[in-house]
Design brief:
about 575 residues, alpha+beta, Butyryl-CoA Dehydrogenase, subunit A, domain 2, Butyryl-CoA Dehydrogenase, subunit A, domain 3, seven-stranded mixed beta sheet, 19 helices
Amino acid sequence: MANYFTDNTDLLFHFNRLKLEEVVEIAEHGYTEAKEYDFAPVDYQDALDNYRKVLEIVGDITANSVAPQAAAVDEEGSHFVDGKVQYAKGIQEALGLLTQAELMGFTLPRRYGGLNIPTTLYTMAIEMVSRAEASLMNLFGLQDIAETINKYGTEEQRQEFLPQFASGAATGAMALTEPDAGSDLQAVNMLAYQDADGQWRLKGVKRFITNGNAEIVLVLARSEPGTKDGRGLSLFACYGKDNIVIRRIENKLGIHGSPTCEMQFNDTPAQLIGKRKFGLIKYVMDMMNGARLGVAGQALGISQAAYEEALRYAKAREQFGKSIYKIPVITNMLMDMRVTLESDRSLLYAACHWVDLRNKLEEKADLLKAEGKDSTAENAKLKEATRVAALLTPMAKYVLSENSNRITYDALQIHGGTGYMKEFNAERLTRDARITNIYEGTSQLQIVAATGGVINDIFADDFTAREQKETSGSLARLADELKEMRVLFLDALKYVTDKTDKHFQSIAAKELVEIYSYLYTGWLLMDEAEEDSRKVFIARRYIIGAAAKTRRNWDTIKKDLFADLLHAEDILI
C-alpha cells in the first residue's frame, strides 16, 4: 500500500537527519514523563521511533483514505443549508479517521490528551495531509489555535478547551479578518465589552474566516474604548454555538473542502485569553507565525502532489513516437520542479527547527525563572533562536508559497490541454496553490516581516564561517558561486541602505530577501550534498540557478529599475 511518509524519500531524508535532541529533552522534561505515561519516550532515540510510527500512520491515512477522495471533495465542496455549515463527505470521513488515530492534538501536552510532538514533526504531517487534499489541512492544521490557549490561557482554560481539541470533539477557528480589516489587523473594530456581571461579550462581524463554523473560536476584538490601533485589541475564546450566526460561506477558486465563513457575533459570551491589550501585538503575532509555517507546509504538500502528477503523466504520455518525459524541454522542467521541491523542503524544516528551539527554550527559561534559578544561558540561546525564527518563518512562507504556484503552473503545462480539464488533478492543484501566497499574510507582508533580519544580515557570521570552510571537487565551484552571490548581496544592501528614499527601500526589499533566501538555502543544500552524493545534483542546479537570479536582482536594484515609480501617474493610465 502507498504511504506518503515512507514513499517520500526526501521527506525521509530530512526525518533521518533531525537534530532535535535539546528540543525533545525540554519537551519531555528530561524524559521524566515516561514515569507517568506508558507511551512517553525514555530517551531521544525512543522519541524518534515514536515520531516515525506516528508519521507512518499519517502517511497511510493520507495516501490510502484521503487522497482518493480529493477530487470528490473539490467537486462537492462545503454546504450551507438553513444557516448551518456541513463539510463535504470526504472531509467528514477524513476528520473521523484522524480523530480515531488520535492525531488532532499533535503538539499539545499529554496531560490534556495530546501527543506532545514538536512543530517540525507536526509540519511534516501537515505536508502529507496537504499533498493528499489541501483543504483538509485548513482543519487539521488549525491546531495552533489550541497551542495558543495552551501557551497564554489560564490552567482552567486549558483544562476546559484543550481536551476537546485533542480528542477531536472540537475543531477551531481564528476570527481575525473583518470587512475593513484584512492585512491591517490594527483596524479591527469588533467590540469586546463587559456586561453588568463582568462577563466579556463580543459584537460585530468577521469575514473570510477559515472553518468559521468551528466549535471553538479565537477572536481578536477591541476591548479598549476609544483606541484605534493594535494596543486596544485583546484575544478571546468563545463557543461557536453561543450567539454566533454564520451569514454565508464564500464561493472560492480553490480549497473547496474548507468552508470560509462570514460570522456575526451577537453579544457572544467569551473568555479573555491572557492579558488585555496584548491580543494583536503578542498573541496573534505568535499564532500567525505558527500559521505561516502551516501554510508553508501546505504549499509544499501541494507542490509534491503536482510534481508527482506531472512526472507520472510525462512518463505515460507519448508524442512523436516516444514518452514526452524523454523530450529535453520537459525533462528540464521536471528537474527544475524537483530541485525547487527539495530546496523548499530544506528551507522549511530548517525554519521549523529554529521555531521548535525558540519555543522550548522559552518554556525552559520561564520554568527556571519561576523556580528562582539562573536562566542566563537559556536566555542567550533563546535570543538567538528568536532572531533566526523571526526571519526564517516569513521567508519560508514567502518562498514556498510562491514556488508552489510555479510548480503547479508547470505541472499543468506538462499535461497540456488535458491539464486544463477537470478529469485531471493538475487543474485542482493549481487552484488550491493560489491561496497559499495570500492567506495568513500575503507574500508582500512576508517580505516586510523578513526585511529586518535581512538588512541586519543576521547570518553574516554563519555565512563567513561557511565560506572559510574548505570544499573540494564539484562542491568547490558551488561554494565559489555562493561567495560571489554574497558579494553582490552586500553591495546591493549597501546601495539600498545608503539611500534615504523609504519608498525605494520598501520595494527593493523583495530583491534583497530573495537573494538572502538563495544564500541560506544554498548553504543548506551544500551541507546535504556532503552527506548524500545525489544531493550534489540538487545543490548544483539550485545554486547555479540562484546565482543567475541573484545577478538579476542585483541589476534591478543597482540600475534603479524602480526610479519610474515617481512617474506612476503618467504610466498607470
